[in-house]
Amino acid sequence: MPNSLAGGQVPNPTLDAFDLVDRSLRNAGSEERGTDPWTFSPLKNTDQMKEVGMASRLRRVVSSFLKACGLLGSLYFFICSLDILSSAFQLLGSKMAGDIFKDNVVLSNPVSGLVIGVLVTVLVQSSSTSSSIVVSMVASKLLTVQVSVPIIMGVNVGTSITSTLVSMAQSGDRDEFQRAFSGSAVHGIFNWLTVLVLLPLESATAALERLSELALGAASLQPGQQAPDILKALTRPFTHLIIQLDSSVITSGVTSNTTNSSLIKHWCGFRGETPQGSSEGCGLFNSCTERNSSAYPEEDRLLCHHLFAGSKLTDLAVGFILLAGSLLVLCVCLVLIVKLLNSVLKGRIAQAVKTVINADFPFPFGWLSGYLAILVGAGLTFLLQSSSVFTAAIVPLMGVGVIDLERAYPLFLGSNIGTTTTALLAALASPADMLIFAVQVALIHFFFNLAGILLWYLVPVLRLPIPLAKRFGNLTAQYRWVAIVYLLFTFLLLPLAAFGLSLAGGVVLAAVGGPLVGLVLLIILVNVLQQHRPSWLPRCLQSWAWLPLWLHSLEPWDRLVTACCPCRACSNSHMSSKVAHCYENPQVIASQQL
């Protein structure tokens, strides 16, 4: 024992000592939780049903029935809270979204159009609303189809924020958070990688615009009827008791100067006609009849039946109230769903469900399983009429380990295709003067997602979002504050920075953004070579050890964040376990040069 340890004095362990026990702790933790965070711990004594009496069996049956009812009820209110959350964001950001879309000079820059599509979709939490704004502006000659293409790309990226927000509610358990956040990240990574490839290609060749024109020329369009909205039919009776919005106010605020109208629907009909509690009969890109108009005497108007009908509160105040309430209900329902799934899906049941969902076709047709999952995701999204609801429902299932990331990835891709087919059918229900523009925008959205599948799924080697999402999930499981940084950086700070540079002009954007993008790509390339081909690099680049610790490790940042936010969600329990291991085993410290 070195002299520094005499007298029972144990010095503070260093980071080198922590690194020594990192591998052993990781192995010990994997033995406790299973060798893979995607696997279940087996249920002990799974044959208890054979050994208990009739009363115990009856209690088990009743308990299972109540759990199933609780799961369905929690799922219903979870979906309703997503709908109300979308309404809250529309109340808070619709006016800002309209003002952003009015600046045609900014929209002419492809990067600005992409960023605006992301920001507006994040603000209104609805890709359908963002798409309807774009279609209205194209039909009103305020935008050209060429300018609208980057905006549609941004809309596709912005819609992935919902699943990321849902995954944050599972941050209490490390393994569940690792799986859930990986699932939400794989969707966003796919969208961003597709944009990085297709945005320069579209700016140079206008490939998507020309492809949509060819598809329109080969088809004879006839106005059709609105696609069935099964999910809305189930949730509308509850959500319309809370709030009803007139979405046509958003599009009219963009295409005209009438921006002072309230988005809250106060009047749902007139005497002598059936009250309209919803926007039935209005297509996705239709401008429904304005019910808040004062063209009729007040005594002839029928007040809507929801909490805020006739209220004197402003749209901003109602939006904040709905935002707080919907987030509270969403988190409670999500916690209940996860707890009930963990209670129901155990042992043999969990293994059976996971085997069925993640099963592959027998050899040599195993490669068809992923494409079948794409079709299933597209079909379910078409039935639900909402990609956000579908992806938000998949994330908790990934958290409890029912669905693997490799199977969830094609489901997310199918969801992207499903939401475009929904928009395409809704576009066919548009008025005759908007039909061509609505269908062309919907086709551009469809071809964008189809090109993404061809790029990042068709060739197995190029399925880069899966390993990137897994590594990102491992990182966020160890440092949970990274998830918040990712959320703010990806959907707010990075778009705002690109938007600010684009306002200064294309030259400034290229001069500042070009070197930054090149530096990031160079760092990624060096990291890949350090892991796989270090001999190809110069000696100074074979390791980042020569850099300051805060430039190549998150440990200093983690200590700073933990000191500023000493809560469980921000703390690094992995680091704490290494500290405890060092203090409980002084021989680890004794082996170091102190």
UniProtKB/TrEMBL annotation:
GO terms for molecular function: sodium:phosphate symporter activity. One of its GO terms (cellular component) is vesicle. One of its GO terms (biological process) is sodium-dependent phosphate transport. Keywords: Cell membrane, Ion transport, Membrane, Sodium, Sodium transport, Symport, Transmembrane, Transmembrane helix, Transport. It is a multi-pass membrane protein. The chain crosses the membrane at residues 64-85, 105-124, 145-168, 316-338, 371-397, 409-429, 435-459, 479-501, 507-529. It is found in: Apical cell membrane. NCBIfam families: 2a58. Belongs to the SLC34A transporter family. This is Sodium-dependent phosphate transport protein 2C isoform X3. It comes from Mus caroli. The lineage of its organism: Eukaryota, Metazoa, Chordata, Craniata, Vertebrata.
